[in-house]
Specification:
Elements (H helix, E strand, L loop, with lengths): L7 H50 L9 E5 L2 H4 L4 E11 L9 E14 L2 E14 L12
Antiparallel strand pairs: 1-2, 2-3, 3-4
Length: 143
């Protein structure tokens, strides 16, 4: 008997194997795209945080003990809908510090944004040298 072609059963089995492979591949691609999207958002948040931290560190008007916040600029954030908050504290002072003494300040910055119904956040901190002002630290006399 001379056979030319495939039987119906062989075609069904081959199609089933191909369908399982394609479904697995599509699922993998979907997961990869979701991960890439999430990483892109974190990358944008890191860039926004870096710009905002540079802006905060260079602003001499920000005093220790202050809390600051604002909305993200959509032109810089790539369309992320969110905001930022920062807290400036005195990190280190020399013994017997008085007003006019150089101190180290810490700036804690949190960038947050909305993704779907979940709120995501990215936190960084930076340090800067400042001069102690009256009333900024416990035990420092106000002049």
């Amino acid at each position: 008997m001379n056979r030319r072609g495939f039987t119906l059963l062989e075609v069904i089995v081959a199609s089933s194997i191909m369908a399982v492979a394609v479904i697995g591949l599509l699922s993998s691609i979907s997961t990869s795209m979701s991960g890439a999207s999430r990483l892109t958002e974190y990358d944008r948040a890191a860039l926004v945080a870096r710009r905002k931290m540079d802006e905060l560190i260079s602003n001499p008007q920000l005093g220790a003990g202050g809390q600051y916040q604002g909305a993200l600029d959509e032109s810089q954030s790539g369309g992320l809908d969110g905001g930022w908050s920062a807290r400036v504290t005195i990190f280190e002072t020399p013994p017997g510090a008085r007003p006019g003494t150089p101190v180290l300040q810490r700036i804690e910055l949190q960038i947050w944004w909305e993704r779907g119904e979940r709120r995501r956040a990215f936190t960084v901190e930076g340090f800067r040298r400042a001069v102690l002002r009256p009333g900024q630290a416990p035990g420092v006399p106000v002049s």
